[in-house]
């Protein structure tokens, strides 16, 4: 993949100058990210906004920043379409490949050429955002009645069946935990 021009980092000067920081802001069209699953691609609203900086350190490059992407899906309870902005933090470490050094240490990517393409970093962030838990239109969404199918947010039917969807109750607890 050729990668996006805005996300192409020329590494020579950076690697020569520890402490140098360059910014690589980019609004990325999701269709440029080579996401092959078209159903996933359709769940991205608009462009993904990448705000990345590359900092040169004594032994490589560190990529910091975040990717903001709006994903859409049907509410998992009432099936209304919902959109949710998702923020993915980026923290990547790159080191120069040297002769005889073919394997990168854990968590580090080797720089194989004088250009570093950040497009895969943005693609992975968008895929991570899409892999999040199923969306809810509202934490208190009442969902569809399992008996008559009415939307209980709009209609109060007289069905009496009590059905709990156990698959998602564990997820609900997870979502209620504070982030990090
Ligand atoms: Zn809902
Ligand atoms: Zn009902």
Write the layout of secondary structure elements.
Elements: E1 8-10, H1 11-16, E2 21-28, H2 38-41, E3 44-57, E4 60-74, E5 81-96, E6 108-111, E7 115-117, H3 119-130, H4 166-176
Parallel strand pairs: 5-6
Antiparallel strand pairs: 1-7, 2-3, 3-4, 4-5
The structure holds zinc ion (2 copies).
One zinc ion (ZN) binds next to loops.
What's a quick, concise take on this entry?
The chain has 180 residues and is an alpha+beta fold.
Instruction: Give the overall pLDDT as a whole number.
Output: 89
Work out the number of β strands.
7
Number of H/I helices: 4
- What small molecules does this complex bind? zinc ion
Strand content: 35-45%
Query: What is the domain total for the residues?
Result: 2
Regions with little confidence, pLDDT below 50 for 5+ residues: none
Q: How would you write the strand order of the largest sheet? A: 2-3-4-5-6
Helix fraction bin? 10-25%
Give the radius of gyration.
Answer: 22 Å
Distance between the termini: 34 Å
The general outline is elongated
Largest sheet: 5 strands, mixed
What's the SSE pattern? EHEHEEEEEHH
Task: Quickly give the structural class.
Answer: alpha+beta
């Amino acid at each position: 993949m050729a990668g996006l021009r805005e996300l192409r980092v020329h590494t020579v000067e950076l690697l020569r100058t520890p402490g140098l920081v360059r910014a690589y802001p980019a609004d990325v069209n999701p269709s440029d990210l080579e996401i092959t699953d078209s159903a996933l691609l359709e769940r991205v609203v608009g462009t993904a906004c990448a705000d990345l900086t590359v900092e040169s350190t004594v032994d490589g490059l560190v990529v910091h920043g975040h990717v903001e992407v709006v994903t859409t899906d049907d509410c998992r309870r009432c099936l209304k379409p919902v959109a949710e902005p998702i923020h993915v933090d980026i923290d990547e470490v790159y080191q120069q490949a040297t002769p005889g050094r073919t394997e990168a240490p854990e968590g580090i990517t080797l720089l194989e050429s004088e250009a570093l393409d950040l497009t895969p970093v943005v693609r992975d962030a968008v895929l991570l955002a899409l892999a999040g838990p199923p969306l809810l239109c509202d934490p208190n969404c009442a969902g569809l009645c399992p008996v008559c199918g009415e939307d209980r947010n709009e209609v109060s039917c007289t069905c009496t069946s009590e059905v709990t969807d156990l698959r998602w109750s564990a997820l609900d607890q997870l979502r209620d935990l504070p982030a990090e």
